[in-house]
Amino acid sequence: MSPLQLNNTNLGAINVATGVAVPDYDRSRITPGIVHFGVGGFHRAHQAMYLDRLMQSGEALDWGIIGMGVMPGDVRMRDALASQDHLYTLSTKAADGNVTQRVIGSMIDYVFAPDDPAAAVAELADARIRIVSLTVTEGGYNINPATGEFDHGNGHIAHDRAELRDGRHGSLRTFFGLITAALQARRTAGTAPFTVMSCDNIEGNGELAERYFLAFAESVDPALAEWMRREVTFPNSMVDRITPETTDADRAEIAATGYTDAWPVVAEDFTQWVLEDRFVAGRPAFEQVDVEVVDDVVPYELMKLRLLNASHQGLCYFGHLAGHSMVHDVMADERFRRFLLAYMEREATPTLRPLPGVDLDAYRHRLIERFGNAAVKDTVPRLCAESSDRIPKWLLPVVRENLADGGDVTLSAAIVASWARYAEGVDEQGQTIRVVDRLASRLQENAARNHEDILAFLRERELFGDLADTPAFAEPYAAALRSLHEKGAEATLDEILAKVGQPAGMAF
User: Please, what's the b/e burial string for 362-383 (b: 16 or more CB within 10 A of its CB; e: otherwise)?
Assistant: First the structure.
C-alpha cells in the first residue's frame, strides 16, 4: 500500500494510521493576518509552531500565515508546500531519543513574489495583514559591512527605489521594495499600517530593521519615511531553536510512518521566544503559548547571541578542522565542552546585561547539553556557513566590549583564528573544505596569505576594523593561528585551556 499524501483531505487518515498529531481546528476558517518573508526550517519550527498551538486552542484563526519568497531558490518551498495544502510535519527530537511529530497547519498560502510583484504588494496591502515578519538571515538586511549603514548602492535596491519613485510595482526585487510599496499603498488609501517583526539573529533586530527600512523609504519619499516613523512599529525579539537543514533521511523517516511530506522540519525539543510588546495593529495572544512578551528584549538577545550563537562559531571551525561533520560528535569531546564553557563564562557573560531571575550558569550548561543532542543530527558545515555575516554580529561585539573594559579576549581571538585557518580551505586530514560565504573568494584569498603574514586574514577591515592593529587581540590571535598550523585544532585547544584554566562552573 502506497503512503498517504499529506494534504487537508488525508489529515484524519494520517492521524488514524500513524498516530501523528494533526490540526483538529477547521483550517477553512483561517484568514490571513501575517505575511512572512524567509520561510525555512526555523520559521516553520518556531513562529508557525507557536501559532499552530494557539489555533489548536481555538485562538488566532484570524492570524493565518502567508509565506512570501523573493529569492530564486524559494520556488522549491512554494512548490513543496503548495503540493500539500501548506501543511508540513514538525519532528521534535529530544536527546534521549524521544521523537514527537505534529502536522502544523498555521500556514495557509505561499506567494513567490517574482511571479507577480504587483500582486505580492497587493497581498501585503490587504488590511487583514497586521504583521509582516522576517527570517531573512543575518545577511539579508543589506548592510554595508564597512560602514554598518544601509547599502543604497546595491543594484537591486537601486532598481526598487527607481520603481517606487515612479509609482510602479511590477518588477520589484527585494523585500525592502515590496514591504515599502505596501506601506506606501496603505498610506495613500488611508489603511492602517502593519507591524514589521524581525525574527533574525541580530542584536536589536527590530531597531535595525526600523533603521534600514526608514533609510530606504527616505530615499524613495521623505514624507513616506516620516509617516512610517510615526505609524509603523518594529518590535525587537529573541528567538531560539536549533533547527538543522531537512535531509532526505528526514523525508524517509516520515514516509516510513505511512505518509509523504515533501519538506518536513526537524528541531530540538527546546524553544524560546522573547518578544517586545510593540504592535501597531494587534497581535496573537502569544503569551498563552509560553512566548515571553516583555518591555525590553535586549538583555535576552545578548544572552542568546553571545552565548549560544557565538559558541556555535566557537565549535564549528575547530570541529571541522579536527575532522568532525556532526555537532554532537564535536561535543562528545571533553576539550570542546571545556573550551565553550570557558568562553561563555570568562568572555561572553561579562558583556551581558542584568537578567533578574535567569540562572546564567544553568543556561550555559543547558547549551552544552543542547549542542550534544545526537538525535537532532545538526551538521558542522551548517554552522560554518556565512561566517562573514555571523562573526561580526555575534562574536566581535564581545571582543570590543572586553577590550574597552580591559578584559581578556584570548578565547574569542582563538575562535577568529580557527575561522582564518578554516578559510584556508583544507582540513587537517587534507580534505577540501567548501567555504560557503558571500565573501568566500575574498576570505580564501586572505587566508591563503596566513603563512607569509600571520595577520593577513585579520587585516580585512571591512570585517574586523582595527583589530589587526590592537595588540591585546592580535597577539593571542596570532598565537592561536600559529598553533593551529603547527599542532592542529585539538592540541591548540589543549594548550589554550591549560593557560586559561578550568571553567568555574564545570568539574572534570
Answer: ebbbebbebbbbebbbbbbebb
